[in-house]
Design a protein that fits this description.
The complex is a heterodimer. Chain A is of the alpha+beta class. Chain A folds into two domains: about 80 residues, 3-Layer(aba) Sandwich (Rossmann fold); about 60 residues. Chain A is built from six helices and seven strands. The longest helix of chain A is centred in the middle third of the chain and has 14 residues. Chain A is elongated and about 50 Å long. Chain B has one domain. Chain B is elongated. The chains are: A alpha+beta, B alpha+beta.
Chain lengths: ~180, ~120
């Protein structure tokens, strides 16, 4: 569960968010939209603890992350994955190594078990047999799918995504009538 | 992405500019505007398919009207900006034309005088 209670954030004298409140239940999928510069990315950063709010509370599973220190934040961040505009894959690693990165760091699994999970994960995003490819060889869309799958692995129950399209399709009426 | 999300039952927050992505991914949509949550609603009442987004009629749902209002403001700002740019361009063109006009008319007068003086 994610909850924002009266979140406020500003930069210098410029307020960006002024009393934002909402609640997202477990398993729910929410899209945050708005014009460019309205504070969507700032809101996301407040929810994942990358920025501290000026006032208000950002709760993840009932815990207010606003006053947490880096160590406490790391514990909370293990619960969720983050997928950003440019997929965050290690170019020097293979696809399988990228997907297994989180598993190796946070779970004690045998290599055959990791390989089995990675293969299953890649099949789920229609990329079977790409384990040994370098991630730099993948197209943008494929990279994003690998990133998304890697981030939503195992015990991660939350996922934050930042998805931007080129300027030409941003909030234009023509792009909205499909 | 939607398939993976549904299979794994992952709670997802997607920040996007793109309405198609929002409609495809978000079961619920939050609209940020003027530093606040301006409107929120389910995917079906917020982003219905085949909708004219300029629809600002009283029959539209409150959320759609809110959206249309923001879009209207956005379009108005764009129009004002366009008029200002066009006006400035017109002004600049006129200034250039008027500044060149006296120079052209002065040249023949001088030319006419020159042979007269040389002949004398």
């Amino acid at each position: 569960m994610i909850e924002a209670r009266n979140l406020r954030k500003g930069f210098g004298t410029q307020p960006v968010l002024d009393g934002v409140s909402f609640r997202i239940e477990d398993g729910e999928s929410v899209a945050v939209i708005g014009r460019s510069g309205c504070g969507k990315s700032v809101l996301l950063k407040l929810l994942i603890g990358l920025l501290p709010p000026d006032a208000g509370e950002a709760l993840v599973d009932g815990e207010n992350i606003a006053p947490m220190n880096e160590r406490q934040l790391l514990r909370v961040r293990r619960k969720f994955g983050m997928v950003f505009q440019g997929s965050a894959l290690f170019d020097s690693m293979t696809v399988a190594e990228n997907v297994a990165f989180g598993l190796r760091r946070h779970e004690h699994l045998t290599e055959p078990e990791i390989a089995r999970r990675v293969a299953g994960a890649l099949e789920m995003v229609d990329l079977p047999g790409t384990e040994n490819k370098q991630s730099a060889e993948l197209s943008g869309g494929m990279r994003k799918r690998v990133d998304w799958r890697a981030q939503s692995f195992t015990n991660r129950r939350l996922c934050f995504m930042m998805n931007r399209r080129p300027v030409s399709t941003r909030l234009r009426p023509t792009a909205l009538t499909s | 992405m939607v398939r993976v999300r549904d299979q794994l039952k992952v709670t997802t927050v997607v920040v996007t500019h793109d309405m198609r992505t929002a409609r495809r991914v978000g079961q619920r949509v939050l609209m940020l505007h003027d530093k606040k949550i301006y409107a929120s609603g389910t995917r079906t009442n917020f982003l219905p398919r085949k909708t004219r987004w300029c629809d600002n009629s009283l029959t539209a749902s409150p959320i759609r009207r809110a959206y249309a209002l923001v879009m209207e403001k956005s379009r108005l700002e764009t129009k004002v900006g366009l008029f200002v740019v066009l006006g400035l361009a017109l002004l600049a063109t006129l200034l250039i034309l008027f500044s060149k006009a006296p120079a052209r008319s002065a040249a023949p007068t001088n030319c006419a005088c020159t042979p007269a003086t040389s002949a004398a």
